[in-house]
Write a structure and sequence with these properties.
alpha+beta, di-copper center containing domain from catechol oxidase, two-stranded parallel sheet, two-stranded antiparallel sheet, 10 strands, disordered N terminus, copper, Di-copper_centre_dom_sf, Tyrosinase tyrosinase: common central domain protein, metal-binding, Tyrosinase/Hemocyanin
C-alpha cells in the first residue's frame, strides 16, 4: 500500500498469511497440537479455578464483549486479539503461518464435509443429530476442557469447566420461531450468508467503514458463530479453536476492503462506541481493552489500522 506503510528506510519482513489446501491441513494439525500446549499452562489473568493460559483468551473476550461487538472496535479489536493468540502459539513453539478458514470456498449444500472439520487433518466436527450443544466427538479436541462460560438466560458470566461443545445447525424461521435443524439434515449451515455471492454484495454495498462493519459483522461473521453453535455461539466463543481461524478470515476480509481503495479505506475508521447508540463518536485514538492479556497494555485503534507495520508485519495472499 504505497504511502501507508512504514518509513522507506525501515527494513520490514512481511509474513504472508497464505495457504493452499495442503498447507492448510498441515498447519491445522500443527496448530491443534500447540493449542493443547496453551491449555496446560497456568492462567495469567484468569481467576476461575482450573483456568489455563488458553482460557485467558475466552475470559477477556467475554468480559469486554459489549465494548467490541456491534460497535466500531469490532474489526481492529479482533485483529489485535488474533495477533496475541498467534504470539502465544509461537511462544509455545508454533513456527508456521497463521491460518484462516475461507468459508466462501466451502459454502454450499455440504459445509459439514469441509476439510476444516476433518477428524484427522482438521479441527474435528460434532455429534450427529444433536439438538443441544454437545461435547466434540471427533478430532483433536475431544475431551478438550475449557472454563469460561456465559449463561445468556441469566445474563451471567462465570467459570464452569466443561468439554468443548458444538452444535452444527441451520436455522429456519417457522411461525416467527427460530428452529435449529441438525446439520446432518441440512448440511448448508447457513452458507447463503457467507457464500461468494453474499461477500461480493457486502464488498460492493459497504461503501464506508461503518456500513461495511455493520453488514459484515451481522451477516457472515454472525452466521459462522451461530451455525457451529455450542461454545462458538456465546461470548465465550474463543473457547473453540475454530474461533481463531474464523476471525483470521474476518480480518482478511477487512484487509481486502481496505485494499479496494487504499487512499480512501486504509485508515478509515468511524462508528459508535456504545451498542445501539446512533452517536458516531469513535476515533482512532480510542483505546482497545485487553485486560493485560499476555502481559500487554491496551492500545489505540490507530496502531492496528495497517498490517504492514512493525507492530503487525503481515499481509494476505488476497
Amino acid at each position: 500500500m504505497e504511502g501507508f506503510g512504514p518509513d522507506d528506510s525501515t527494513e520490514l519482513y512481511l509474513s504472508s498469511k497464505m495457504l493452499d489446501d495442503q498447507g492448510l491441513l498441515l498447519h491445522c494439525m500443527r496448530q491443534s497440537s500447540i493449542t493443547h500446549t496453551l491449555s496446560v499452562q497456568p492462567a495469567r489473568i484468569n481467576s476461575y479455578p482450573g483456568a489455563t493460559l488458553y482460557d485467558d483468551f475466552a475470559t477477556v473476550h467475554m468480559s469486554v464483549f459489549e465494548r467490541i461487538h456491534f460497535v466500531a472496535q469490532f474489526f481492529p479489536w479482533h485483529r489485535w486479539f488474533v495477533h496475541l493468540y498467534e504470539t502465544a502459539l509461537k511462544d509455545c513453539g508454533y513456527d508456521g503461518n497463521a491460518i484462516y478458514w475461507d468459508w466462501t470456498r466451502d459454502a454450499g449444500l455440504h459445509v459439514v464435509d469441509s476439510p476444516i472439520f476433518d477428524p484427522v487433518t482438521g479441527f474435528g466436527g460434532t455429534r450427529i443429530n444433536v439438538t443441544i450443544p454437545s461435547p466434540v466427538a471427533t478430532g483433536p479436541f475431544v475431551n478438550f476442557t475449557v472454563v469460561a462460560y456465559s449463561d445468556y438466560s441469566a445474563h451471567k458470566d462465570y467459570g464452569r469447566p466443561h468439554y468443548l461443545e458444538r452444535q452444527f445447525t441451520s436455522q429456519v424461521v417457522r411461525n416467527n420461531t427460530i428452529i435449529p435443524i441438525p446439520a446432518s439434515e441440512d448440511g448448508s449451515m447457513l452458507s447463503e450468508r457467507y457464500n461468494k455471492s453474499m461477500m461480493n454484495n457486502i464488498m460492493d454495498t459497504g461503501k464506508n467503514f461503518e456500513l461495511f462493519r455493520e453488514l459484515f459483522e451481522g451477516i457472515p461473521h454472525q452466521a459462522i458463530h451461530d451455525t457451529i453453535g455450542g461454545d462458538m455461539s456465546p461470548s465465550n466463543s474463543p473457547n473453540d479453536p475454530l474461533f481463531f481461524l474464523h476471525h483470521t478470515n474476518v480480518d482478511r476480509w477487512w484487509w481486502k476492503w481496505q485494499h479496494l481503495n487504499t487512499s480512501a479505506n486504509a485508515l478509515q475508521y468511524t462508528g459508535n462506541t456504545v451498542q445501539g447508540s446512533p452517536v458516531l463518536d469513535a476515533t482512532a485514538q480510542d483505546l482497545m481493552p485487553f485486560m493485560g492479556l499476555l502481559g500487554g497494555e491496551d492500545l489505540p485503534v490507530s496502531d492496528v489500522l495497517l498490517t504492514n507495520t512493525l507492530k503487525l508485519c503481515y499481509t494476505y495472499d488476497y
